[in-house]
Each structure stands twice: as structure tokens, then as C-alpha cells.
Amino acid sequence: MSGGSYYVPATSKWPILGSLALGLMMVGTGMVLVYDRGTLLMVVGILSVLAVMALWFRDVVRESRQGLYDAQMDRSFRQGMGWFIFSEVMFFGAFFAALFYIRTFALPWLDGEGAKGVAALLWPDFVASWPLMSPPDPAIVGPEQTFSPWQLPLVNTLILVGSSITLTVAHEGLKEGERATTRNWLAATLVLAVSFIIIQGVEYYEAYAHYGITLEAGIYGATFFLLTGFHGVHVIIGASILAVMLVRVLRGHFARDNHFGFEAACWYWHFVDVVWVGLFLFVYVF
């Protein structure tokens, strides 16, 4: 490359294959949710999406390692990652907004308060409270008890906050050319990520087995699993990304001044950590 030229990727089959894989996954998922069949189609779709992602990212890594990317491509990657994280902010923002709407407006209305307090006519004996242990509809059984925020949720909060610190140390080590520091602290971050996933699995077991917190336990159970479940999926995705970064570090990838793949993984992980702090405060504490 020379002058003002920039790299133009070769014709790629991955966008169309990725679209087909996503369509297959969504059709299968829709069939499972609506007709209670189509599990095989959904699984094939999920595996297809993962395969396309892995092969597509492989090609991007190869092109980067071959020195084909310039400053313009670096800006494109940064802008793309920035917009992706913005979309994730909107994704979780919608769920937090739903939680705040329920707690601030819907429950008081059902209790006769506010401009739409006439809704109290639906269930005259309903008393608004949060967490909602007794749903207004007697056909729905609420949770038996809720989690103390100062036990497993606090442990997981400390783990994720700690993981952001260890990842920052690893990133600084990479920028200083200290690859051993990067390797060790990135491995520590991955251990913390896996620990979080395991502890959340234990919490979910306790929720179903001993606390009566299920997806069917009224609005509290639904919002609890909606928010913490989607966040857990993001932690698993983030841990997978960190594992790939660790493999690449062990293979000698990344340079002190050229490592946006690693930096993008850091952006994503820090975002996941910030979301959890919000969940800890508004799902468990307040």
C-alpha cells in the first residue's frame, strides 16, 4: 500500500453465509417457542452461526497478521466496535427501562396511586411492593424469598470488578511490551470470568430449588432472569473472547502499537462489568 490507498477486502462468502445461518437459527428458535418443535433446526442454526463467526474472524486475523490493514482500517474497526457496544447499551437500557417502569409506574397504578390509579379496580386487594412476593393475580405464585445482595451477588460483583482490574493490568503490559505480564494477568482475568459463570449457575440452582424464583414467579421472577440471564450470556461470550485473546498472546500475536483485537476485547469486558454493577444495585440491592 502506498500514499492514500487503503486495503479493500477480497470478495467474501461469509456475509451471505452468516445471514443464512442467522435465519436458520431464528426460524428454529421461533418453532421451538411457538410449536415446541424444531430443536434440531435451532441447534444447527446456532452451530452454523458459530462456525461462520470463527472462520470469518480467522480470515480477519490472517489479513491483519499479513500487514494488509492500515490506519483507515483501524479506524473502521474502532468505529464498528464502538457502534456495537452502543447497540448493547441500548439492548440493556431497554431491560432496565422495563424494570424501572414496572416499579415506578405499573405497581403503584395497580395499588390505586397516580394518574392511572383506576387500574386498582382489577385487583382491589393488591398492595404494591418490591420485590413483588405476592402477584395480584392469585393464579400466579410469587417467589418464596429473595437473594441477599451481600452473599453470592456481592461475591460476583467483587469478581467482575477485580477482573476489570486484572484485564487493565494485562492491557498495560501489552502496551509496554511485557508479554509475560499480559499472559499472566489475562489468564487471571479468564479464571475470574469462569468463576463468575460458575457462581451464577449455583445461584440459579438455588433460585429454582430453594427460593421459588422462576420465570413463572410473577414479574419479579421474569425481570430477574431476563436481566441476569442476558448478562450471563454476555459474560460467557466475553469469556470466550478472552480465551481467544489468550491463545493469540501465547502465539505471539499483537504488538505494542498494533493490538486493536485485544483492545476491543477489553472494551467489551469493561462494558459487561459496568452492566453488572447496575444489575447488582437495581436488581439485588434496591
UniProtKB/TrEMBL annotation:
<feature type="transmembrane region" description="Helical">
    <location>
        <begin position="267"/>
        <end position="285"/>
    </location>
</feature>
<dbReference type="InterPro" id="IPR033945">
    <property type="entry name" value="Cyt_c_oxase_su3_dom"/>
</dbReference>
<keyword id="KW-1133">Transmembrane helix</keyword>
<dbReference type="InterPro" id="IPR024791">
    <property type="entry name" value="Cyt_c/ubiquinol_Oxase_su3"/>
</dbReference>
<dbReference type="InterPro" id="IPR035973">
    <property type="entry name" value="Cyt_c_oxidase_su3-like_sf"/>
</dbReference>
<feature type="transmembrane region" description="Helical">
    <location>
        <begin position="182"/>
        <end position="202"/>
    </location>
</feature>
<protein>
    <recommendedName>
        <fullName>cytochrome-c oxidase</fullName>
        <ecNumber>7.1.1.9</ecNumber>
    </recommendedName>
</protein>
<feature type="transmembrane region" description="Helical">
    <location>
        <begin position="14"/>
        <end position="34"/>
    </location>
</feature>
<dbReference type="Pfam" id="PF00510">
    <property type="entry name" value="COX3"/>
</dbReference>
<keyword id="KW-1278">Translocase</keyword>
<dbReference type="InterPro" id="IPR013833">
    <property type="entry name" value="Cyt_c_oxidase_su3_a-hlx"/>
</dbReference>
<comment type="similarity">
    <text>Belongs to the cytochrome c oxidase subunit 3 family.</text>
</comment>
<feature type="transmembrane region" description="Helical">
    <location>
        <begin position="222"/>
        <end position="247"/>
    </location>
</feature>
<feature type="domain" description="Heme-copper oxidase subunit III family profile">
    <location>
        <begin position="2"/>
        <end position="286"/>
    </location>
</feature>
<feature type="transmembrane region" description="Helical">
    <location>
        <begin position="82"/>
        <end position="102"/>
    </location>
</feature>
<feature type="transmembrane region" description="Helical">
    <location>
        <begin position="40"/>
        <end position="61"/>
    </location>
</feature>
<dbReference type="InterPro" id="IPR000298">
    <property type="entry name" value="Cyt_c_oxidase-like_su3"/>
</dbReference>
<keyword id="KW-0472">Membrane</keyword>
<keyword id="KW-0812">Transmembrane</keyword>
